[in-house]
Amino acid sequence: MHIISRAGWGARPPEGRDTTTWSRRTHFMGHYSAASATQTPRQIQDYHMRVRGWSDVGYNFLINSITGDIYEGRGWLTIGAHCAGHNTEAIGVCIIGSDKAGRQDVSDAARRAFKWLYEEANDRKGKRLTLLGHRDRGATACPGDEIYSWLKAGLPIVGQPPNPTPKPPPGKPAPGTPIAFPLPAGWYFGPASGPDYSVSGKYERYFRGRTDRAWLKEWATQLARRGWSIGKGKRWLGRYGNDGIYGPEYAALAVAFQGDQGLREDGLIGVNTWNAAFRNPLT
Ligand SMILES: [Zn+2]
Q1: Other residues' Cβ atoms within 10 Å of the Cβ of residue 101
Q2: How far apart are the C-alpha atoms of 120 and 127, rounded to whole Å?
Q3: Are residues 109 and 204 in the same domain?
Q4: Strand (E) or helix (H) holding 27
Q5: What pLDDT is recorded for position 233?
Q6: How far apart are CA 277 and CA 263, in angstroms?
Q7: What are the start-end ranges of the H helices in 17-156?
Q8: CB 107, CB 252: distance < 8 Å
Q9: Inside any domain, residue 7
């Protein structure tokens, strides 16, 4: 694993910074951003600097809750602005996104990233930091119930992928009958927190006579026909199954399939990702 540097995500320079030392670092604190999981670190930084008037993005690190990418915020030893009164002793890490309706919002990749960062901090200090959620030190719902209970349980990683089932031999034509992309041009299957053209299956919107949920299931069913291990307890969509409601599990499946097909790995199911499932030969 690696940390995407500030230059790597196009950070604005800080307007000031105060540093501390590893001897004064004693805690490692989890946050969420309480906004869309598709927010970029730059958008969060802009909000913190322009709206909140802070010198920089408030967190020491940020993690994409879908892909598990880790972004450098203020870094290890610059004092953050993530928990009033506790920024010197606590390293603040934000898992970008929010906790909605009890639905898990954090992928296994993001959990592994958070845990890796925590172990990295412990190594650098040479001693274990105390793990906290923001709500342990402030009147806030942050980091949401799901992340909080996970922190309190000591960061167990569930959903370790079982051995994948053997795939059909490569080179064969795509199985089944090709189905045309059901959404308008430029739209895609993506998070419910996204714009109107990000179709999640959550609201059961109708496209070409069927619900978005039915269409999203159709896409994943096609991947199963292509030999992907899909469904509850399986390699992909293992936690919730092919329920047609876009979340981190569909995003992870889409990223893997896009990587397999040489497509842009954004986890969103647009026309290219759709067509590749129905038209490309097996890989
Ligand atoms: Zn917080």
Answers
A1: 7
A2: 11
A3: no
A4: strand 27-32
A5: 86
A6: 12
A7: 41-46, 108-125, 145-152
A8: yes
A9: yes
Q: How far apart are the CA of 93 and the centre of ligand 1, in A?
A: 9
- Together in a domain, 194 and 55: no
Neighbours of ion ligand 1 (CB under 5 A): 31, 134, 142
- β-strand pairing of 70-72 with 130-133: unpaired
Asked, for residue 107, whether it belongs to a domain, the answer is yes
Check whether residue 147 and residue 9 sit in a common domain.
yes
Q: Could you tell me the distance, in angstroms and rounded to a whole number, from the CA of residue 135 to the centre of ligand 1?
A: 7
- Residue 117 CA, ligand 1 centroid: distance in Å: 17
The pTM of the whole model exceeds 0.70: no
Higher-confidence residue of 176 and 58: namely 58
Last residue of a domain, which of 108, 136, 152? Answer: 152
> Residue 167 has what pLDDT?
63
Compute the distance between CA of residue 212 and CA of residue 106 in angstroms, rounded to an integer. 22
Distance 51 CA to ligand 1 centre (A): 17
39: CA distance to ligand 1 center in Å? 16
Decide if 20 contacts 79 (C-beta within 8 A).
yes
- What is the total count of domains within the chain? 2
DSSP annotation of 209? T
- The answer on pLDDT for 111 being more than 70 is yes
**Residue 162, pLDDT score:** 44
Residue 157 lies in a domain: no
Residue 107, domain extent: 3-152
Say yes or no to pLDDT of 55 above 80: yes
Task: Name the more confident of 171 and 203.
Answer: 203
Ligand 1 centroid–CA 203 distance in Å is: 29
By DSSP bridging, strand 130-133 and strand 27-32 are: parallel
**91 CA distance to ligand 1 middle (Å):** 12
Q: Which amino acid is at 10?
A: G
pLDDT in tens, 118-133: 999 999 999 999 999 9
pLDDT reading at 149 higher than 50: yes
